[in-house]
Design goal:
GO terms for molecular function: hydrolase activity; metal ion binding. By secondary structure, the protein is an alpha+beta fold. The protein is 24% helix and 27% strand. The strands form three sheets. A six-stranded mixed β-sheet has the order 6-7-8-9-12-13. Strands 1-2-3-4-5 form a five-stranded mixed β-sheet, covered by helices on one side.
């Protein structure tokens, strides 16, 4: 299942980047295909599974995928990364190395949640707070935001005023903290100290559910009051 895109605009009216949300697996995780509107160079963020569906979207959009990017090591975000990387012949970047154990035990996660077996993936580049990561013709800032997962990272593009938040912050909710390596106080600190100070105008796409803005969540999210 893929989210329908609108009729393409003329080149001079295209936004700097295009984003297609591809809900994957029973978790309906927001795998994102993101690309430069002019060059079609792009990346896949958090391919949690359903690799044939992701490949079909890449082909239909004509995207030249240059890398796979991971926000954290939970199965619904990394479950298809190894197979997709092998199919496309591209590197994998992220998350923070604190999630190495989660990724190495992705098959155990599959059994725990009763989903298809998944393969671990070895990132070509682990990310740390303060790194930058080039994607879809833009340079994203890397923010290490633990709490939901020890090595969770968020990708923020200051010029576009946009972030991929993974499972740190959702519209009306926050990431689970009842999983191994999670901690509620740490997650709240990540949100309040790393994300919200970026500005109320920042739009973000979470790992599940609809997009929102930091300002809207600051004002209405019950977990942030």
């Amino acid at each position: 299942m893929t989210q329908e895109t609108e009729t393409p605009l003329p080149d001079n009216e295209q936004p700097p980047i295009q984003i297609m949300v591809i809900p994957v697996t029973a978790f309906q995780q927001n795998c994102a295909l993101v690309w430069d509107s002019k060059t079609k160079a792009g990346a896949v963020i958090d391919p949690g599974g359903d690799v044939p569906t992701i490949l079909k979207a890449i082909e239909e959009q004509g995207v030249k995928v240059e890398k796979i990017v991971l926000t954290h090591g939970h199965i619904d975000h990394v479950g298809g990364a190894a197979d997709l990387a092998a199919e496309l012949g591209v590197p994998v970047e992220g998350p923070h190395e604190a999630d190495r154990m989660l990724i190495e035990r992705v098959a155990d996660q599959a059994r725990q949640f009763g989903v298809s077996e998944a393969k671990p993936v070895e990132p070509d580049r682990w990310l740390v707070d303060g790194d930058t990561m080039d994607m879809a013709g833009r340079t994203f800032q890397v923010l290490h935001c633990p709490g939901h997962a020890p090595g969770h990272v968020v990708f923020f593009e200051p010029e576009l005023r946009f972030a991929f938040s993974g499972d740190v912050l959702f519209a009306g909710s926050i990431g689970r903290t009842d999983l191994p390596g999670a901690d509620h106080a740490t997650l709240i600190a990540s949100i309040k100290e790393k994300l919200l100070p970026l500005g109320d105008d920042i739009s973000f796409l979470p790992g599940h559910g609809p997009a929102s803005t930091f300002g809207h969540e600051r004002e209405t999210n019950p977990f942030l009051r």
